[in-house]
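Data availability (excerpt). The following record was deposited with the supplementary files.
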Amino acid sequence: MAIGLGIDVYGTLVDPIGISDYLYSLIGDQAERMAELWRAKQLEYTFRRAAMGRYENFDLCTRCALEWVAASLKLSLTNEETARILDQYRKLNAYPDAASGLSGLKRRGYALCAFSNGVDSSLRQLLEHAGLYAHLDGIVSVDEIGTFKPDPRVYQHLVRRLATKPGDTWLISGNPFDIIGAKAAGLQAAWIKRNANAVFDLWDIEPDLVVTDLNDLVRQSLAMDEG
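Predicted structure:
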């Protein structure tokens, strides 16, 4: 049976903190702090909604998180400014290794899909803008089942969509919580550790493979073949 790869998007293929370059024109030196707070609150909202069983899609969580951060930093954003920021969030830049890494994985015969908390239409726009969509076989969104990572059901959904077995399904992610969620659901997982100083969550679950970027994953792909 073929090996299927579900590749996370935000923090794995595109850099969500890169929105700080755009925010700088609006708020100056607070831009990077705002981007980091926004990302943290966005994820917090998804975790809380999954735990509560009160699903609203990722676009709404992203907007609510932006509004919370703006209020926390005492920034008065107009509706037009908010809309422009959210539009820019669908134009995040890809990591430098993303396109070449996906291309290399594709040449090795893996089934590749973007696997994300994001909404399909927003993901498609994002991945097309980043020049990555053509390297993928498709998109698997948690929106299809109405919950968020790391709910075990989203990883089971990935397995069904890829038509693989859990042991033949790999999650590729730069986010430790995502790796732990996939492993807990019985999948294999590779952690993209771009920052040499990053510390994996100190749980009793560890990734099957740790690589520096997607090109490194291509170089170490034999480990995925061997399971």
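Summary of structural features: The chain has a mean pLDDT of 95.
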